[in-house]
Amino acid sequence: MAAVLERMRNWEKIFRLRSDQPLFVFVPSRMHNPADSGYPSKLFPNVLELQSLKVARCLLILWGATVQALDLIMCQYHANEEFSRACECHRRIWNFFGCGGTKDQTALQLMVMESNRCAWLICRCVEYLYGNEMGLVGHQSMIYAKWVITKHYHQLGMSRELAWCHNISRMSGPGATGRIQVMEFQY
């Protein structure tokens, strides 16, 4: 699994290098998610403006697969004491995260950090894909990614993020498509 994660990370680097402009930029959020109502600030005050729908789809698959793979490893880590002690796994995972984290952080902490980073990036794509310009195609592009992040936040017990995911289809604001209903995966 660590080898797959390394390949995905390398693919992302190559994808970025081949583009003559940034794949995305951060912009202020304009939509409202009902899950943010009880809080002093938005969970995601800045969102991604992506280069194109093609780029968005590629990144969603990449980030979604990364979150899903790391969540699977974390489940094994918790369920199998022998697995959690396996030096090879820790060494490969440590190599995968390379520059991120400190020597004091465990492989599990690094996995949580990386899976959250990818999940947060997916969440920040929602506004771009749920905008009027994308219509039904934007909503359809989010099906897999939304399932992955919902499952991820549930697994980690992150209640605010989970509520945010459950309210994605109820988002409103400038440029928001109406309440388009599309098939969703259950977790």
From TrEMBL:
For this entry, the protein name equals: Uncharacterized protein
What species does this protein belong to?
Fusarium oxysporum f. sp. cubense
